[in-house]
Fold each of these.
Amino acid sequence: MAGTDHKKPLLSGGPAIILVEPQLGENIGTAARAMLNCGLGDLRLVKPRDGWPNPKAVAAASGADTVLDAARLYPDLREAVADLRHVYASTARDRYMVKRAVTPRLAAGEIRAHLAVGEPCGVIFGPERTGLVNADITLADTVLSVPMNPGFSSLNLAQAVLIVGYEWFIAREEPPAETLHTGHSRPATKEELVRFFDHFEEALVDSGFIRHPDKRPSLFRNLRNFFQRAYPTEQELRTLHGVVTSFMGPRKGAGDDAA
């Protein structure tokens, strides 16, 4: 196959590439091919429309079988990012959220710095037709946007993955980006952060704070984005759980989350 040299080392690693509800097997395959081109090996699939495994993905991958064979399937995005510390959401549209936004080039340096100190990262991509929904983006710390022709910035799935992967690949020789020092407590994982969201939001409902149910989704999105920007540590979340519990009492069926 053109461009393939089995005598040379096959690079693999990097951030997780998470495809949310991809519609076509062919698009998964071409995205996997783009990943392997750039030395990326962690492919995560959230509810692919045509099921998994998919023979059309294998054909379109043109030999990137190692990525497809290792791909993991998830029922929702929440589970797909649970073990990650830093998540970037790829989107071309303004979502009117208070979110930090970076280019793939800047993100690549940050991701390399995070991974160098053992903090797993991921980049999420939405369905081909609609892109990510706002609820998906609230699970990300940072929005990743590719600067393109403002009048025509649409990319297909494999193109978007390739641009992010290419910037990751060429950033190998760049100096590491600034990292956050968190003292004696590690940065919280997404699973821990979402568990706190559930606890906090449940308390807001039970306390009667939510007086207008129609405003609940936007309020929760804003609060989640606020806590995402704070980059809380695991210990800080334990403290916040304790604060919520002290006001509301223990959650039904929940263990002790106090600090």
Amino acid sequence: MKKIATLFLLLSCIICGYSQNIVLLDDDNNVISNTIVDITVSPSSGVTDEIFVSNSGSVADTVKVLRTVYTVNDDDLTQFCWGGLCYLYTTNLSSLSLIIAPGDTVDFAENGFHSIFNSGPACVTRLVHYKFYNINNFSDSTGVTMRYLCSTGVDELADGGGEISDLYPNPANSMLSVKYDVNKVSKKGKIVFYDMLGKPVKEVTFNDKHGIAKINVVDMNAGVYFYSFVVDDKVISTKKLVINHSY
């Protein structure tokens, strides 16, 4: 297992005050714990992605992986590898655990994690969440949502996209405003809100090609969310929203 000394100087600051010691990193050593990671995949093709798993604590963590499939098509196949075993497409929980020593980071070569996604012929967005947790301390857990975005190899955003402003106000209390413009060749636009696990919690469809929309978020719990501007089932942009009902 490899030591990343300079990285853990950063991680110790990031997770100070939190009980979780498991930290997820991409291949550029960016922290991706509790985020949505966008991955482009063409119809009827496959993609494999590695996630580095770190233990920033002072004792060893014994870690398992739980997969939650939020949205896929019937023709899609998704699986993951962990602890030296690649699981069947139907398996959601790893049968094997992996012990990560304090201050260590594991990659796939060290029996760590990678995900495999094989797309069917449909060109839509898919969401798959992976939770990493310490079997001896369930509060020591984190996760990442893999959002698979369709690409047909043409400039879809230029031909079928649009523009959207930031939601205002942010943080929000009850009502939000947003200015949007959907390209004339597109059929429809919408905003989809996701919680920190990447699960869709609210969807607002625009009735017109352009204008200013008012969105009521009283029905959403206080907290941090992501929201995506989606045109013809293709994600144009994703940003963060904070909801605070206390003011």
Amino acid sequence: MRPHVRQKFVVGNWKMHTTTVEAQQLARGVVDGLAAADHVTVILCPPFPYLALVGDSAFTGEVSPTMLRDLGCEYVILGHSERRHKLGESEQFINRKVVCALAAGLDVILCVGETLEQRESKQTEAVLDRQLSTGIAGVSGDDLSHLSIAYEPVWAIGNDEHHATPKQAHDAHLLIRRKLSEICGETWAHKMTIQYGGSVEPKNAAAFLGQPGIDGVLIGGASLKADEFLAITKAAASEIRAEMQLA
């Protein structure tokens, strides 16, 4: 792949869903259907009790990074909106988790995003600025290659009344990359993966993935059905092939 074309990421966040049998079947269904996913990094994030089980098929919560590495995990999602707003994790606490996870050898997906109230009061830029500045404070240059950002507009997650448009997602990604440039420098800001997470489904995946600067998607509900997850993965593969042809 040409150096200035960023690889696409498709991340399935299962949260507190699936049983033992369902987790194994879902993971196997995804793995069996991934043949066409060239140049797309596919990541599954199952519930903690099923990590080892899913790891056997495919290679969140209260657990140490050392334990995750021992189970063969490579990625961890931190700063998820549910952890921020339901469990009260502060920016400083999330930062400590980011630094700790990176030190343990895990790749970190750091979630950022504003609530509906913050967006309507035109605080989006300030919120993203604060979450990024604090969230990656103290991260060394060597560790930046193991860090990616997921923009999650809290107001658009599982909300039938409010949906983010591809343009709104694109604009937020521009803000994030501009802020990363201020924090990390333009070179790292250009290299860093920024994903979108906000009710992504097969029917809208291409519209989001086709936006300049959106490097992947963090998927919730649609990741619980192998066929829907694979359809999104194929959309990502199609977009990266188109970008490579234009590069």
